[in-house]
């Protein structure tokens, strides 16, 4: 598969450049450090499980024989997760990585039992104030900040006339499920869009599934039919259906987590051309960074880091279609918003803390 | 023409069905094969018709050794079989059933017009009239049998096997069938005829072969053998029981039926203003060609469905709206016509089949008492002389006659006040049939009211106190069973040619 | 609110895989084999279509491969139930497990990715513009311009009805499905009829899968059938043994789904909307069963 | 009889070994330690108390669901609602544990009872529709599973969701309501004893009580049951209610035994496993226990191989599917010649 090989090769090149820039840490110890990533699901989600695995590859690429890496898929049966964490903790792994909120409770149970292990928890937290979790490093993403930029882009493309008026005036949001982490994207997205057009309308749909691309396409088509000019998908493999819908309806889409334009650039250039941009959630970068800190002995264990635009952990793809599609004033506006968020002059609400009632009010207020 | 030589059949589970069977069948004759249930008749015919392969031995036709390994191969040899349990498909039409697997085609499709014409042609050739477009499930049993015979004849058949063909027929239908068979023989067909009924064998066959426990026990031209000899060869020693007509023990009817009407979807089940009275100690016989309303009558009397009009009373009190459970609690017992469909379950054990319904009498607290249940069943097995591996064997392991005994034991053992027996001895051997008939009479003598439905007129005439003839859902005759009453007297009523007041 | 002009194509799109798979279930059911493995067969078809169309750069070869993949899995099911005489339901469940694992493995082996085939330049099956009809206002856009498999699915309904009712094979299938012992005694080759029906079922499943990966979207993704095979099983049961009934049931299911999808964003909680497509068929069945019961009572 | 049963078991085990040899060995040859792969799969699950514990944890819900399916199938019904009942039972139990103001020792039993009643509705509704209108319970239960899922998620989202948690999960289950653990170093909880007891009682019910007997009559031959005057519709409904209660109870046990919060976002799949278990057990409640343990072993062994070697868990999944087919393959397990080779007397002799 020539396309893929090329892409992977590029990834390797990037990783290689990173190594050259940072410099391989001097032969650290004779024993390789062992890191394992326990996936509470299956790979192939094109979202942070895959990005996490990519991060593991980058770690391997960077440290070579100085590390031993492994990715274990635990599947979707939740009762097996704790057992797997326990197994890994009993083994000779030095660093154990888990992600999503669901793993938090498991970390709570496991980490205190194995104080000599280091745990990295992505997108979840443990109650550090209890003082039992000196070996856990937790990191959460401010995806609302990245989504804020996505909202500006979507609303901006309509407002400045880049998008023809006859496409419609509303923007779309396609979520996998009506759950907090998805709504964190939604809240930031709406706020960003409102900062451009205060009375912007947002068509919101939840698919109830993360692997049903056909359903995702159908939902997106319904939105496009209803006058949505550009939609934002946060629904894993279901969400990719939105890209197919954008191609069919001749509208625009926004990707999530990874660069969705790049996913289809080789296999379906026409569809890729409909991806205005993607909001990135750089799990790979974060994981690599955490491991760097771990090797350097400066990983801030025992606390939560919440990282966002400031740490470059989330962001918007600004190359590709975005570079040509967005006009300069819009780009400037996005850059300004980014700066504002980084310096704290703009704060974006979080979907984690809003109550269901407030969320409903918010959703009702933007309904087309 | 057909020669069986040293044919044996042992099933994988070790059961020996046939051993060293050898005899010949002459071309152009009707050859009867007699034997008790489980004697091996059906297995032998299954081997001939390609449904099973022999374990040893050989068959030759016209001197050519043959070994049909499928019904198709048998058909190619000119062998057709009419099964006792028809191999017909209810939702297909008569034409589709007859020509299944050998349909005339037009391109990729069935040529319906040609198929229909072929069936009509076939029917005309053998004088067996059928409606080619009727859906099979809507036909009476006799009509279905015609279809089954036509199907067997449809493939250039030279050898026709009939397995108990008269079990489901009324006397006029039987007579008609016999006329057809004789005509078929005259047209050159060889017919193998399996039957329990000596009278029929006598009337039809030129040669008889008797089987006993998987072996040939006799083989003789009909002219050279007496009925008694055949009976002895078939079952060792057993005579036919004498005529019994139990007397009613009270003038008061136990069961009264007035103006009973049922408008069922199936025309064969419909009832039209039926009046009946059955007294304690009396056996009321119901005669009629199949599909004259017998099934509907049984359904209504057993509470399986409610009548559209009319009333049923027990001891003078109406039981309107009572379902089967309620009637059974009042003392209803019912030996159904289809022993495996309604009478029991092949998968359950003999004990479970024998005590189902009465099982609540074997309780200790919330639990059943399995040991007591098994003991009771052992008693039944002994008393009814049931041949079986043991009380925990599944009912499906038993031959038809033995299974019928278990089911009869259950129904008769409930000390019933009203007993409905529907074809109690159909398809079972003479010894078992006599035993069951004796039990029915004994129950009547003990004061039970009995309703007997049977296609076997001999049985009706031997057991019944009175006989009621049904035709098209109506009572056309109600006759005391005196010596003048004969099948010939009943025939016209059954065919609806005559109506008595 | 809901524009009907947009809804009709949506209904057809949502219903197409259900009609195709439903017909597949229908054919095998008529021959007495409940094809629980339809979901797995669809998945295999979806993957095979993508892979072969990418390799050959010919969408039609991809479709053929999808049909064959469905049939190959059907053959495997037949080996399990006929040759090994394993339990029918369990074999179906096992086939679905195996297909999910197998397609993921195959995808990984081919692309290095477990989730999606986006690195394969696979093709899609064409939309068909019906000449003449296309030019009619309103009706044109409704009836014309659908995926070739949508038309194939609709066209297959009478063909299947004819197959089942008018051909020797169909007659044999019905006989075997209703009473295998009687059919065998008549000389109908029961095994061959069931295997043939199952293979046809597999072909339909493969087509349904191909519609998902080469019609709906242009890629294969893990477990992309998302339970449509089970819905197709339901459609067949709701069709009461008729090809037309199966189609009607599939359209009912598809219509409910399409309408609830369009209703999203009107303030009804999404979970409740998602429940509706599963409640409507139950309701429809109850109404039908009640009417039938009442009719039979008379 | 016992001799034949032993031969059957031995033959089944032999089939398992042969399939493992045929599939796993070639896979293992790609690894540095092929012997390790095979022994890990076969014996790894028994090497530590924790992994034995894992088998039992997995088998516990399978026993409840398998028992529920077995009781329903025995009554001649085909209800797939066990999956939804298990899900809703778990949700209902958690909801009750969160809402009921009961003192410690009463909380778990009360919550389980409430969960069982709520969850059983997924089986009961199709049962009622079947009994009253003759609507196919296969289809309605299949559909209602998904309806129950989404309605359950709605309830979770609106009433039970912990806003402090960053995902759609319920509030934490009160410590009082959680089931006590039995063996140190494992998560085996009291639920397994309840599951074993339920299977035992299920066998007792089916084979030693009047109700169970009537249920088997109706399942074996409905016309026969009608002939006896039994109310087939009511018997079927009774089985659906019983099966629904057991499955939903199992869902509650699973929640209170292994989870801290309700966090299922999709149907957990235990009901489907229950169908598999029931078929493996030939619908016999007592055999549900070994069948569930067998599946648990298959899972844990497969997980261990996937985790410790470079073999994708999908490959293991393929082998598990093959095992499921072959251990129910009558052509193998009922083959008289093979059975005799494993010491069975000819079945004919048993007569």
From TrEMBL, chain A:
Residues 33-329 form the ABC transporter substrate-binding protein PnrA-like domain. Residues 1-29 form the signal peptide. It holds the Pfam family Bmp. It is found in: Cell membrane. It is a lipid-anchor. Keywords: Cell membrane, Lipoprotein, Membrane, Signal. InterPro entries: BMP_lipoprotein, Peripla_BP_I, PnrA-like, TAT_signal. Coiled coil: none annotated. Belongs to the BMP lipoprotein family. This is Basic membrane protein A. It comes from Kaistia dalseonensis.
Automatic annotation (TrEMBL), chain B:
Residues 2-238, 255-497 form the ABC transporter domain. SUPFAM superfamilies: P-loop containing nucleoside triphosphate hydrolases. It comes from the Bacteria. Keywords: ATP-binding, Nucleotide-binding, Sugar transport, Transport. SMART domains: AAA (SM00382). InterPro entries: AAA+_ATPase, ABC_carbohydrate_import_ATPase, ABC_transporter-like_ATP-bd, P-loop_NTPase. GO terms for molecular function: ATP binding. PANTHER family: CARBOHYDRATE TRANSPORT ATP-BINDING PROTEIN MG119-RELATED, GUANOSINE IMPORT ATP-BINDING PROTEIN NUPO. This is Simple sugar transport system ATP-binding protein.
TrEMBL record, chain C:
Its main location: membrane. The keyword Membrane applies. The chain crosses the membrane at residues 31-52, 59-83, 89-110, 148-164, 195-217, 229-252. It comes from the Bacteria. The keyword GTP-binding does not apply. It is found in: Cell membrane. It is a multi-pass membrane protein. InterPro entries: ABC_transp_permease. Keywords: Cell membrane, Membrane, Sugar transport, Transmembrane, Transmembrane helix, Transport. Pfam families: BPD_transp_2. This is Simple sugar transport system permease protein.
TrEMBL record, chain D:
It comes from the Bacteria. Pfam families: BPD_transp_2. Keywords: Cell membrane, Membrane, Sugar transport, Transmembrane, Transmembrane helix, Transport. The chain crosses the membrane at residues 54-73, 80-100, 106-129, 141-160, 188-207, 241-259, 315-332. It is found in: Cell membrane. It is a multi-pass membrane protein. This is Simple sugar transport system permease protein.
């Amino acid at each position: 598969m020539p396309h893929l090989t090329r892409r992977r090769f590029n990834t390797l090149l990037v990783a290689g450049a990173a190594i050259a820039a940072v410099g391989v840490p001097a032969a650290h110890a004779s024993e390789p450090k062992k890191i394992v990533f326990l996936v509470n699901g299956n790979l192939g989600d094109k979202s942070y499980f895959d990005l996490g695995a990519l991060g593991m590859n980058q770690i391997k690429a960077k440290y070579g024989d100085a590390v031993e890496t492994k990715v274990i898929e635990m599947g979707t049966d939740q009762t097996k997760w704790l057992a797997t964490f326990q197994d890994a903790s009993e083994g000779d792994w030095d660093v154990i990585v888990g992600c999503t909120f669901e793993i938090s409770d498991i970390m709570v149970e496991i980490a205190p039992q194995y104080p000599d292990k280091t745990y990295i928890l992505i997108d979840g937290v443990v109650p550090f104030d209890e003082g039992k979790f000196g070996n856990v490093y937790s990191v959460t993403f401010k995806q609302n900040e990245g989504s804020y930029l996505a909202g500006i882009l979507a609303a901006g493309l309509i407002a400045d006339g880049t998008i023809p008026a006859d496409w419609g005036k509303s923007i779309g949001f396609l979520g996998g499920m009506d759950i907090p982490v998805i709504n964190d994207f939604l809240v930031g997205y709406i706020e960003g869009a409102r900062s451009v057009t205060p009375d912007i309308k947002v068509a919101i749909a939840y698919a109830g599934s993360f692997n049903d691309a056909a359903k995702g396409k159908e939902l997106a088509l319904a939105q496009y039919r209803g006058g949505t000019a550009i939609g934002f998908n946060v629904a894993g493999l279901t969400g990719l259906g939105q890209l197919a819908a954008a191609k069919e309806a001749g509208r625009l889409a926004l990707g999530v987590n990874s660069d969705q334009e790049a996913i289809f650039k080789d296999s379906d250039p026409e569809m890729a051309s409909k991806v205005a941009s993607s909001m990135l959630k750089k799990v790979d970068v974060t994981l690599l960074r955490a491991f760097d800190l771990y090797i350097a002995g400066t990983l801030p264990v025992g606390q939560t880091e919440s990282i966002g635009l400031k740490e470059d952990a989330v962001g918007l793809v600004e190359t590709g279609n975005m570079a040509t599609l967005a006009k300069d004033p819009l780009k400037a506006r996005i850059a300004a918003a980014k700066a504002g968020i980084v310096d704290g002059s703009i704060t974006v609400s979080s979907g984690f803390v809003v109550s269901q009632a407030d969320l409903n009010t918010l959703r009702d207020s933007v309904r087309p | 023409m057909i020669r069986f030589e040293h044919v044996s059949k042992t099933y994988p589970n070790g059961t020996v069905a046939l051993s060293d069977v050898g005899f010949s069948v002459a071309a152009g004759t009707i050859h009867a094969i007699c034997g008790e249930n489980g004697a091996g008749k059906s297995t032998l015919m299954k081997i001939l018709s390609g449904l099973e392969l022999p374990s040893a031995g050989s068959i030759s036709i016209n001197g050519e050794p043959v070994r049909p390994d499928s019904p198709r191969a048998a058909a190619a040899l000119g062998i057709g079989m009419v099964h006792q349990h028809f191999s017909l498909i209810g939702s297909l039409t008569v034409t589709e059933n007859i020509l299944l697997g050998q349909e005339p085609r037009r391109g990729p499709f069935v040529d319906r017009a040609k198929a229909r014409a072929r069936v009509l042609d076939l029917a005309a050739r053998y004088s067996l009239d059928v409606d080619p477009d009727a859906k099979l499930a809507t036909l009476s049993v006799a009509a279905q049998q015609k279809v089954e015979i036509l199907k067997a004849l449809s493939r250039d058949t030279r050898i026709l096997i009939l397995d108990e063909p008269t079990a489901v027929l009324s006397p006029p239908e039987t007579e008609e069938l016999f006329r057809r068979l004789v005509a078929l023989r005259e047209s050159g067909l060889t017919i193998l005829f399996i039957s329990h009924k000596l009278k029929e064998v006598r009337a039809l066959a030129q040669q008889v072969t008797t089987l006993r426990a998987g072996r040939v026990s006799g083989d003789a031209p009909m002219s050279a053998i007496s009925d008694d000899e055949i009976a002895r060869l078939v079952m060792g020693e057993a005579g036919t029981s004498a005529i019994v007509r139990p007397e009613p023990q009270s003038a008061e009817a136990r069961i009264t039926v007035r103006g009973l009407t049922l408008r069922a979807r199936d025309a064969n089940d419909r009832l039209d203003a039926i009046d009946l009275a059955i007294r304690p100690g009396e056996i009321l016989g119901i005669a009629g060609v199949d599909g004259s309303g017998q099934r509907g009558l049984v359904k209504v009397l057993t509470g399986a469905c409610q009548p559209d009009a009319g009333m049923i009373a027990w001891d003078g009190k109406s039981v309107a709206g009572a379902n089967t459970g309620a009637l059974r609690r009042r003392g209803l017992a019912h030996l159904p016509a289809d022993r495996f469909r309604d009478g029991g379950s092949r998968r359950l054990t003999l004990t479970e089949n024998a005590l189902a319904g009465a099982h609540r009498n074997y309780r200790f607290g919330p639990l059943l008492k399995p040991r007591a249940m098994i003991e009771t069943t052992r008693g039944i097995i002994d008393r009814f002389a049931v041949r079986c591996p043991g009380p925990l064997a599944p009912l499906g392991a038993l031959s038809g006659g033995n299974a019928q005994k278990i089911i009869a034991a259950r129904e008769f053992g409930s000390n019933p006040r009203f007993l409905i027996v529907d074809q109690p001895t159909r398809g079972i051997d003479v010894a078992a049939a006599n035993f069951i008939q004796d039990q029915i009479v004994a129950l009547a003598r003990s004061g039970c009211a009995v309703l007997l439905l049977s296609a076997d007129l001999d049985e009706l005439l031997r057991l019944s106190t009175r006989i009621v003839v049904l035709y098209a859902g109506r009572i056309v005759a109600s006759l005391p069973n005196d010596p003048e009453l004969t099948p010939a007297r009943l025939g016209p009523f059954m065919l609806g040619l005559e109506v008595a007041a | 609110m809901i524009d009907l002009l947009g809804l009709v194509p949506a209904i057809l799109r949502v219903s197409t895989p259900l009609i195709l798979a439903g017909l597949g279930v229908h054919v095998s059911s008529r021959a007495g084999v409940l094809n629980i493995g339809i979901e797995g067969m669809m998945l295999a078809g979806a993957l095979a279509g993508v892979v072969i169309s990418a390799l050959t750069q010919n969408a039609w070869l991809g479709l053929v491969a999808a049909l064959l993949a469905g049939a190959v899995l059907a053959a495997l099911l037949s080996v399990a139930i006929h040759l090994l005489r394993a339990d029918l339901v369990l074999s179906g469940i096992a086939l679905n497990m195996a297909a999910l694992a197998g397609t993921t493995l195959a995808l990984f082996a081919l692309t290095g990715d477990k989730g999606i085939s986006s690195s394969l330049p696979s093709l899609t099956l064409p939309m068909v513009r019906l000449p003449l009809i296309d030019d009619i206002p309103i009706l044109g856009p409704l009836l014309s311009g659908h995926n070739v498999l949508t038309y194939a699915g609709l066209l297959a309904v009478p063909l299947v009805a004819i197959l089942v009712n008018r051909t020797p094979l169909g007659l044999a299938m019905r006989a075997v499905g209703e009473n295998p012992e009687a059919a065998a005694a008549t000389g109908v080759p029961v095994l061959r009829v069931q295997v043939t029906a199952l293979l046809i079922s597999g072909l339909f499943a493969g087509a349904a899968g191909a519609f998902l990966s080469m019609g709906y979207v242009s890629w294969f993704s893990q477990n992309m059938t998302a339970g449509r095979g089970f819905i197709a099983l339901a459609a067949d049961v709701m069709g009461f043994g008729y090809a037309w009934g199966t189609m009607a049931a599939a359209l009912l299911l598809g219509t409910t789904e399409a309408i609830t999808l369009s209703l999203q964003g009107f303030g009804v909680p999404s979970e409740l909307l998602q429940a509706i497509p599963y409640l409507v068929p139950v309701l429809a069945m109850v109404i039908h069963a009640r009417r039938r019961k009442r009719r039979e009572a008379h | 009889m016992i001799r034949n049963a032993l031969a059957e078991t031995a033959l089944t085990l032999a089939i398992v070994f042969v399939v493992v040899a045929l599939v796993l060995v070639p896979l293992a040859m790609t690894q540095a330690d092929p012997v390790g792969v095979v022994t890990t799969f076969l014996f790894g699950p028994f090497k530590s108390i924790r992994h034995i514990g894992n088998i039992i944890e997995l088998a516990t819900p399978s026993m409840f669901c398998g028992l529920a399916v077995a009781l329903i199938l025995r009554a001649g019904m085909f209800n797939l609602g066990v999956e939804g009942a298990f899900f809703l039972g778990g949700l209902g139990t958690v909801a009750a544990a969160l809402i009921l103001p009961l003192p410690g020792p009463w909380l778990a039993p009360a919550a389980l009872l409430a969960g069982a009643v709520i969850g059983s509705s997924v089986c009961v509704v199709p049962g009622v529709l079947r009994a009253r209108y003759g609507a196919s319970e296969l289809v309605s239960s299949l559909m209602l599973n998904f309806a129950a899922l989404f309605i359950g998620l709605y309830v979770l989202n609106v009433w039970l969701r912990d806003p402090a948690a960053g995902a759609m999960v319920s509030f934490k289950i009160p410590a009082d309501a959680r089931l006590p653990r039995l063996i140190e170093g494992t998560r085996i909880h009291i639920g397994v004893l309840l599951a074993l007891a339920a299977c035992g009682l299920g066998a007792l019910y089916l084979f030693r009580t009047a109700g169970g007997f009537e249920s088997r009559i109706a399942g074996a031959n409905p016309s026969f049951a009608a002939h006896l005057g039994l109310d087939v519709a009511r018997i079927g409904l009774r089985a659906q209610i019983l099966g629904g209660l057991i499955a939903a109870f199992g869902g509650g046990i699973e929640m209170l035994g292994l989870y801290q919060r309700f966090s299922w976002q999709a149907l957990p799949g235990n009901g489907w496993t229950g169908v598999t278990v029931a078929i493996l057990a030939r619908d016999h409640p007592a055999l549900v226990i070994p069948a569930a343990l067998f599946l648990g072993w298959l899972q844990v062994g497969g997980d261990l191989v996937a985790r410790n070697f470079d073999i994708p868990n999908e490959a293991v999944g393929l082998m598990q599917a093959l095992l499921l087919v072959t251990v129910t393959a009558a052509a193998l397990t009922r083959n008289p010649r093979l059975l005799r080779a494993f010491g069975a007397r000819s079945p004919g002799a048993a007569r």
